[in-house]
Write a structure and sequence with these properties.
about 450 residues, alpha+beta, 12 helices, 15 strands, about 50% helix, cell membrane, transmembrane helix, ABC3_permease_C, MacB_PCD
């Protein structure tokens, strides 16, 4: 008996009791849909978090805090980083040790001032929303949110913020910033006495909006010459307002020591090798790629747990398949007797019933998968609305509560077929032991 003949025989028998077939397939489909939708939550959250991490080159970024038994990162270290295999760019920044006041027309901002190396920043994908890079000593670039940090002088503190926590529009600077002159005011303290110095700067560029919605960048990129001018005024390294131990200018090394250094790899695959090399050399680093490893393990355990829980629903559905196949063996006893009488091999009889249980499982897997994709689509469509309604705030951009990769579909279908085959195995074995004479008399 060929496989084609066995399949035709199975379909003919299934058509004899369509209601029972429908209920069995329905139970299996519900089990498969439950398994896929439940596990898709783990896949969806994993994908959303990883996608969020990969924004703004964070996944290829390695932050270097210093080196063991070293006073700081110098140009010698920068050169070593740039010569490493797989490194695309090395950015370095120094921060003014006080927050200066920036006065523009009748508006003031109290924010950080940073010195950076723009050629390396450009290699690391630093972009401007408008304007150009500084060319003169007193030209600066401001962060994307610098405008929001400018507050009108004399603003009433009680009316500064509206009911939603945003700064009142009446107190926010609204004109174009480009090519505007503003004053940068720094201070120094000598025996408790405050002295001020004003440096005039010109805004020539505005940085691009950060990739992350929650990121707030209102700092000002100043030149190395401005930093040195502030240091000469205060007499302290990095322009701190007061002297501290080791802050004397004459104690400064001849080469620069950088406050923040970041290495950017060419691609994600290079990060692990760069991390290992830097750690072996004694550098203290932080890379989100290392954090992603731990997160991947956590989500893997979560996915396995969800798949296991979903499999329980399939096991429950398999009880229905077992009952269906047991009844089928009982009802088809005469057919089994005839097949045995004409010389059918027990293995053929067993294969017919296994094929029938597999067919039921395959139908349930197909319909269950279709339902799961539909439910997943509706969940992702409704979640932003539910969050907006319940919490009165927008859902995170790119949030996927449910995501069904092909791997999950294949795993679920595989589990379904495995469970259904095992469900039909015992009835199939029972069919091979049916007595021919009793079967012909419609007895078991």
């Amino acid at each position: 008996m060929t496989f084609k003949d066995q399949f035709k025989f199975v379909r003919q028998n299934l058509k004899k009791n369509k209601s029972r077939l429908f209920m069995t397939v329905l139970a299996t489909a519900i089990g498969v849909a439950f398994l896929i939708v439940l596990a898709s939550v783990g896949f969806g959250l994993h994908k959303s978090i990883i996608s969020d991490m990969m924004q703004n080159q964070l996944v290829t970024q390695v932050e270097i805090y210093g080196k063991e038994d070293s006073q700081g990162l110098t140009n010698e270290d920068i050169t070593y980083f740039e010569e490493m295999d797989g490194v695309e760019a090395v950015t370095r920044r120094n921060e003014l040790a006080q927050m200066p006041f920036f006065q523009l027309d009748d508006y003031t901002s109290n924010t950080n001032a940073i010195v950076t190396h723009f050629p390396s920043e450009i290699k690391a994908d630093f972009k401007l929303a408008s304007g150009r890079l500084p060319e003169g000593e007193n030209e600066v670039v401001v962060g994307y949110h610098f405008t929001e940090s400018l507050i009108k002088n004399g603003a009433n503190p009680e009316k500064l913020y509206d009911d939603e926590g945003n700064i009142n529009e009446d107190y926010v600077y609204t004109d174009d910033l480009l090519n505007k002159e503003m004053d940068m005011e720094v201070i120094k303290l000598t025996d408790g006495k405050e002295t001020k110095k004003t440096i005039s700067v010109k805004i020539v560029g505005i940085a691009e909006k950060p990739a992350r919605d929650w990121a707030y960048e209102a700092h000002v990129f100043i030149s190395e010459e401005i930093l040195q001018e502030v240091e000469q005024f205060t007499g302290v390294m990095r322009g701190a307002t007061e002297m501290y131990e080791g802050g004397e200018l004459d104690a400064k090394q001849s080469e620069d020591v950088y406050d923040y250094v970041k290495v950017y790899a060419n691609n994600v695959q290079e990060v692990e090798g760069i991390n290992k090399t830097l750690e072996d050399k004694g550098y203290m680093i932080y890379s989100i790629a290392n954090e992603m490893k731990q997160m991947n393990v956590i989500f893997l355990i979560m996915k396995i747990g969800l798949i296991f829980i979903g499999t329980i629903a399939l096991i429950i559905a398999s009880i229905g398949i077992y009952n269906t196949m047991t009844m089928a063996v009982t009802e088809r006893a005469p057919d089994i007797g005839i097949m045995k009488a004409i010389g059918a091999h027990p293995r053929t009889i067993k294969n017919i019933f296994l094929l029938e249980s597999t067919y039921i499982g395959l139908l349930g897997a197909i319909f269950g998968t279709i339902v799961a994709y539909g439910v997943s689509f509706l969940v992702n469509l409704s979640v932003p609305f539910i969050i907006q309604t319940a919490f009165d705030e927008a859902a995170p951009e790119g949030l996927l509560l449910s995501y069904i990769p092909w791997s999950l579909t294949l795993i679920s279908v595989g589990i379904c077929l495995l469970v259904t085959v095992f469900s039909g195995l015992r009835p199939a074995k029972r069919a091979t032991k049916v007595d021919v004479l009793k079967a012909m008399r419609r007895e078991l």
